[in-house]
Design goal:
The protein has 13 helices and 7 strands. The protein is globular. Bound molecules: S-adenosylmethionine.
Length: about 300
């Protein structure tokens, strides 16, 4: 991605999620504060992306978008619903166990920092400067900014975490920390991914957990894998990692992490109850993974 631009993939994650929350059985899976956050966010995106805010309220437009998305990449929409639904309680469980800090890599337009900072957890969001600029403005505008939330510009393609993390005044290397990478590591080269894991592991002195999405495109049929890659390329961004779940775990293990759990898309889907008419395809190769840094 050219770091002068906002991330369209981040914008489309928010737009697709917003569109899904306009549909009652999906909306009912989420707290009102989450729905309101994305409603305000999509309405405040730079033009022309903000047009989706009103267009998606029209049933015919929403159905056309959903049918096209499901045709080109079945499971794409469901995977967005699932990541928004499952990551928050995964983090919540760790906070309840005593983790006091959350570092969100490639935070984009997500609501994790806003949600947990409001309950007193230190949250640090990292993303490129154009993204943090818009996010900060949005948070300020809606009264979401608070003392526990830092939105920090950092391009991990240009600088390494070991240079960036010590600069962030509110980030405590001695706090038990959850690092979150939702739809982020795929944008790093394998070398950068490995270095980033190593630098995370080296920086934090206390307990460290990692919660990450994994996209194993090898599990998709060749056409759907082509659509996945090229949809990202079409908006000027580039996936670089292309790891299978086993490769991804190997990177973690080689960088001093142990795998605590991996949830498959099918397991996540089975935990969601929606009326039959609203069931959607599942994206094969999508996982949520939790790992701990070895002591
Ligand atoms: C697919 S979006 C996911 C956003 C958010 N985590 C979510 O799931 O809604 C990927 C995010 O990673 C960010 N990103 C990509 N490459 C990056 C880099 N080299 N340094 C910092 N952020 C990066 C993008 O700006 C974007 O916000």
């Amino acid at each position: 991605m050219k770091s002068k631009q906002i991330s369209k993939t981040a914008a489309y994650v928010a737009i697709k999620f917003y569109g899904l929350t306009l549909i009652k059985p999906y909306r009912e899976l989420f707290d009102k504060e989450v729905i309101t956050f994305y409603d305000r966010l999509v309405g405040g995106l730079p033009a022309p992306l903000n047009n989706y805010h009103s267009l998606l309220k029209k049933k015919w437009f929403r159905s056309a978008c959903m049918n096209l998305d499901e045709l080109l990449l079945p499971g794409d929409l469901m995977h967005i619903l699932m990541r928004k639904l499952y990551i928050k309680p995964m983090i919540g469980r760790l906070i309840a166990k005593g983790y006091t800090q959350i570092l969100i890599l490639g935070a984009g337009f997500d609501h994790i920092g806003k949600t947990y900072s409001q309950s007193g957890v230190t949250c640090i969001e990292l993303d490129t400067a154009p993204m943090t600029h818009i996010k900060q403005h949005f948070l300020d505008q809606h009264g979401y900014s608070n003392n526990h939330l830092t939105v920090y510009p950092a391009d991990l393609g240009e600088r390494s975490l070991s240079d960036i993390l010590p600069e962030i005044p509110k980030l405590d290397p001695n706090a038990a920390t959850v690092a979150v990478a939702e739809g982020f590591f795929d944008y790093l080269s394998p070398e950068n991914f490995s270095r980033t894991l190593n630098e995370l592991s080296e920086f934090f002195n206390n307990e460290l957990k990692l919660v990450s999405t994994v996209f194993s495109l090898q599990k998709l049929n060749p056409f759907h894998a082509f659509v996945f890659r090229n949809a990202v390329r079409a908006v000027g961004e580039r996936l670089e990692l292309y790891a299978t779940l086993d490769n991804f775990k190997d990177f973690l293990v080689k960088n001093n992490f142990k795998i605590d759990q991996d949830l498959t898309a099918y397991e996540m889907r089975d935990g969601i109850t929606v009326p039959k008419d609203f069931e959607m395809a599942v994206l094969p190769g999508f996982y949520l993974l939790e790992a701990s840094r070895n002591k």
